Structures are given as C-alpha cells and as structure tokens.
C-alpha cells in the first residue's frame, strides 16, 4: 500500500514537471515516452532507487548498463559464430567426420570381447598430463608414447588396439604408453595443436616426435627404438593453465565486441557520445565541488567572544 501510494503521488506531482521538461526538450520522442503512465514513471522510480542504493549517478549508471548490454550482445554474436570462428575446431571436427570415420563397427561387442582382459592404456587428461609426463619440465618419469584419439572414430579405435599390442610386447621396457581423449580435454588438444585423430607422439628428453608411418605394431616399435631420430624434433609447448585460458577467452570476447561495433558504426557513435557526456558531467560535478570547497575555505571565520 505504501509503495502504491508513493507511486501514485509521484505520478500526480511530477506530471506537470515531466511535461514542462519534455516541452523544453528538442526531441518529441522523449515527450511521447513520458506520456505513457504508469510504466515509464515506474521505470524512473526504479532507476532512482538503484542509483540511490548504490550511490551512483545516473550518467554512470547509464554507462554501466550500456557496457553490460554490449557485453551481452557480443556474447550472443560469439555464440552464433557470426563474429569469430575457430578454424582449429572446425578442422578437428572435419577430421572426425570423414567418410572413412563415419563407418561404425557393426561388431562392437565382438571388438570389445577380443581385447577383454588385455591391459588398458594409461589415461591422461587436462589435469594430470603435465604432472605425470613432465613433458615440458624435466621428464624424469620416463619416455612417453601418447595416443590422441576419439571413441567415435574407427581409425582411433584401431590405433588403440595396435598400441595395446605394442604395450604387450614392450611391457618390460621403460616405455610408458598412454592415451588422451580429445573430446573431453580441450586444453591438451589446444596445447599440442591436434587437428585430426588418431595422432601418436613420442615424448623423449623434453622433445616430441610425431609418428607419421603405417599403423603397424613392428613399425611403431622400430619408431620408438630409434626411428624417431629421422623425424624432426619439436619443442614441447608449455602447459596451458586456467589463467591462460581465461585470458584467451577475454581476448575472444574483446574481438567479438570490436567486430560487432565495427559492423554497426551507429552504435559505436552512440556509445562514444554517451561515455563522453558521462565524463563531461562527472568532470563538471568535480569542478563545482572543488570551487565550493575553495570558497568555503576562503570565508573569514566569525570571532567568538
């Protein structure tokens, strides 16, 4: 009841003020908007409450709301993929969806039964890859042969089966064989720039060697025992942390906002003029307060007898 009375009182007392203010305005649109009670007046009261609650001036509040709206718009553009596209992700998905990989194994249960009881590969993910392998730091844990694969890819499953046979023949060596599922480990995929699966990489003495031969057991064993020397050695990239991922995400949002504003110069001009007006009003208020303080300090104090 108190709130309703307060709104109705404001509607009646401020009606003439609103019309007078609107008549002095150069824009007829503002006058039409303020002639639609009680919705516009309710919004005005809500704006007044928010600015008083957070001790924020209306220009600052409008500027903050504009920035928030731009951020939401940029997120929408980024989600639709109209502003930015990730070519690596598209290439990765293309590698998964090739005609050869679309042919699924009809005897899935027979394939699982064939390798039932065989030792499974070590599982590496975004959280334990660098901790277990130490590929970019010291690699004191040993030599690692890592398969990047996907469960939905038939060549990946065949590569896993081949690698299990390699593990069976080299289980007494110092070779550590592991697998990374690219579908659930985006940071590791981005770190090693995995464009398609399956990919087999040998990590040895802080260097990485990508296997490019035929997926046969003896060929892979020869590659591990010395064939890697004929392959170009690459430096192991550093681990991508959550802070790096956050910075990259912010960079993508920033690029999305810039692209959105570049395609809409009217919005850019409006935001720029609004921010300039907010800065002008803020500076003017600060100068007025400074003048009042200087005037108060310059007044002679009254003598008290």
From TrEMBL:
Mind telling me which SUPFAM superfamilies this protein's record contains?
Thioredoxin-like
Which domain of life does the protein's organism represent?
Eukaryota
| Domain Thioredoxin residues, every copy | 123-224
Q: Which CDD domains match?
A: PDI_a_family
Instruction: Return the Pfam families for the record.
Output: Thioredoxin
Q: What is this protein called?
A: Thioredoxin domain-containing protein
